[in-house]
Design a protein that fits this description.
Blueprint (H helix, E strand, L loop, with lengths): L1 H13 L3 H24 L5 H15 L2 H24 L8 H30 L5 H11 L2 H25 L5 H33 L3 H7 L2 H4 L2 H39 L1 E5 L5 E5 L4 H7 L18 E4 L11 H9 L7 E3 L9 E5 L10 H4 L1 H4 L1 E13 L1 H6 L3 H21 L3 E6 L2 E6 L5 H25 L9 E18 L2 E7 L1 H15 L4 E4 H7 L9 E5 L6 E7 L5 H6 L1 H5 L1
Length: 579
């Protein structure tokens, strides 16, 4: 168990890259944005509701551990955004990605005046600027700031929503959750902006009163003229620094491009006669996009899939070593050959010849929107391989059509169990079947469904044996292997011969475990990953084995099931244990 936990921890750490850090920081900032927007929405009720909401909002986000996480996330996320501006060499992926980058980079410049006036004014001078003071300044003194506030809130929300979309679009539940997420993405900012508008109107109506001004515009609340001048100078200095930093990044990009051209160009040969000349330092995928060479890439060059893989022709010694993220992806797909590299990560310094492992298919511009899973999608699935034992001996003394009849009845019994338990029969190879669980459910449910299907398959095959007892010399036996993990699903094949299936390490491991049922003399084997994800606590009833999987360096902990029907009792207690 400890070895299994260390293995999962090691794989998790190896999978962390710049994009993962940016995602976590972005989620912290988006959580703050949602909290602030919901607070603004209280303005549709009253100013008193706004005051109550800001009290709890501030109490949470200024709590020291939360504040440290928040400000660290803000600094890291902004820094990574500037780094992305420098690092990005190609902006022709999709229009939405440059839009997200531009919106994100504009937020610090738009929000600095508000942050300085409210947060820094409180930290330096003890000013207490709350909604009445901010509304008076933005609606009465400087009306243009009202529109600036609306603009920055809208920009920040769109930027965060785009990032959330990029993160969730490959998740299993996204298709079902998309309508609800869209409704929230429209309603939350709308209510927030309306709340600000209503609160501003109330302050404008009350601001004519001398008593209101005395209660809300004292120097202790809005600061003295000298303090305001100091804060405005801080804003000016920040804007000069920030805009100068952006300008420096563009200058650095120009210097880099000039340096690359002076440093020489390299030739990329695609193995089909196509060659392009590109500057050193450009990734192979970026070169393909720059020169309109079709190149498969499901994740858009984020190193979240392996569909852009290439095989290098010739000596690989001069190639840069794979980054941690590239090595993680290649290891996940079992690509141990040093000539196999990710085109989105490989930045050659010398001439390179290669060919693509996945040929891109021509498709319409809206194909991805209408059928995203047909191109490719990464998600957690549970793979189950079921194989009929002794089919060769079965065919020795029977007519071919009789053998086909029996095999079809077996596959029908397996498919019925898979479908009733929520899975999908996927591939039929001879007398075996690949079934997938989790296409429309979460990982925990998928694991439970697969284990229930094992027990039901045993029952169905037993009934089939009774039905065919006069025609069989010995009962039909079977072996089942189950494993779960991240896979790529999509259409695989050529032209009119495309089939929907799953590719990945989890599918390969399930096939290997099915083979092991012969040597371990059992009906089913499933990995410890399945047991833990399903919440199967009664593990003492199932023997534990450490097995070596072909193509994997580390051993794997698995559970064997001698009689598959016994799983029905164990899985029946899962819900109680999980609760």
């Amino acid at each position: 168990m400890a070895r299994f936990s260390r293995q999962r921890l090691t794989e998790f750490i190896r999978g962390i890259g710049v994009r993962q850090i940016r995602l976590v920081c972005g989620m912290v900032l988006f959580a703050y944005l949602i909290s602030h927007f919901l607070n603004h929405a209280l303005g549709n009720i009253s100013l008193d509701a706004l005051a109550t909401g800001i009290y709890y909002h501030t109490a949470f986000w200024q709590f020291l551990p939360v504040a440290i996480v928040f400000y660290a996330a803000a600094l890291v996320h902004a820094g990574l955004g500037i780094w992305a501006l420098y690092q990005r060499r190609q902006f022709r992926w999709k229009a939405i990605e440059p839009l997200q980058l531009v919106l994100g980079l504009s937020i610090p410049a738009l929000i600095i005046a508000h942050i300085t006036g409210v947060r820094l004014g409180e930290a330096l001078y003890g000013q207490e600027k709350l909604y009445p003071q901010v509304f008076y300044a933005y609606w009465v003194v400087w009306p243009y700031k009202m529109w600036l506030m609306f603009a920055v809130l809208t920009i920040a929300w769109i930027h965060g929503s785009i990032g959330l979309y990029f993160w969730l679009r490959m998740k299993t539940f996204y298709k079902r959750a998309a309508p609800f997420l869209l409704a929230a993405a429209v309603l939350v900012p709308t209510l927030a902006l309306l709340g600000l508008y209503q609160g501003g109107r109330s302050v404008v109506a009350d601001s004519d009163s001398a008593e209101w001004k005395a209660d809300n515009l004292s120097p202790h609340q809005v600061g003295t003229p000298a303090e305001q001048d100091t804060l405005e100078n801080i804003v000016d200095y920040f804007l000069i620094f920030y805009l100068g930093l952006i300008g420096f990044v563009f200058l650095a990009r120009g210097v880099r491009a000039l340096h690359e051209r002076r440093g020489g160009m390299i030739t990329l040969s695609y193995g089909n006669g196509r060659t392009v000349r590109v500057p050193k330092g450009l990734s192979v995928l970026e070169a393909s996009l720059r020169y309109n060479v079709p190149h498969a890439s499901v994740c858009g060059g984020r190193a979240r899939c392996s569909t852009c893989r290439i095989r290098v022709i010739g000596d690989c010694a001069s190639l840069p070593m794979p980054s941690q993220r590239e090595a993680f992806v290649l290891n996940r797909v079992g690509a141990t050959d040093p000539s196999i590299r990710l085109a989105c990560q490989l930045r050659p310094e010398t001439d390179l010849s290669f060919f693509q492992l996945f040929t891109p298919h021509a498709m319409s511009a809206n194909a991805h929107a209408s059928h995203p899973h047909r191109i490719g999608q990464e998600r957690y699935l549970v793979s189950m391989f079921v194989d009929m034992r002794g089919s060769t001996r079965l065919a020795e003394h029977r007519l071919p059509f009789d053998t086909v009849f029996i095999v079809n009845r077996f596959l029908g019994a397996v498919s019925q169990a898979v479908i009733e338990c929520g899975g999908q029969p996927n591939q039929f190879v001879g007398d075996g079947q690949l079934a997938l669980f989790g296409l429309a459910t979460n990982p925990q449910t998928a694991c439970r469904q697969a284990l229930r299907a094992v027990a039901m398959i045993a029952v169905n095959v037993e009934e089939l044996n009774q039905f065919l007892r006069h025609d069989l010399h010995e009962p039909i036996r079977f072996g089942i292997g189950i494993h779960g993990g991240e896979v790529i699903i999509g259409d695989i094949g050529y032209r009119d011969h495309m089939v929907f299936t799953a590719l990945g390490d989890a599918v390969n491991v399930a096939a290997r475990l099915q083979d092991m049922t012969k040597s371990l003399a059992c009906e089913a084997i499933f990995s410890e990953e399945i047991r833990m994800t399903a919440g199967l606590a009664a593990a003492d009833a199932l023997p534990e084995h450490e097995v070596a999987i072909r193509g994997r360096t580390d051993v794997m902990i698995v559970r064997s099931v001698a009689d598959a029907k016994t799983l029905s009792a164990l899985v029946g207690d899962v819900d109680v244990v999980a609760a």
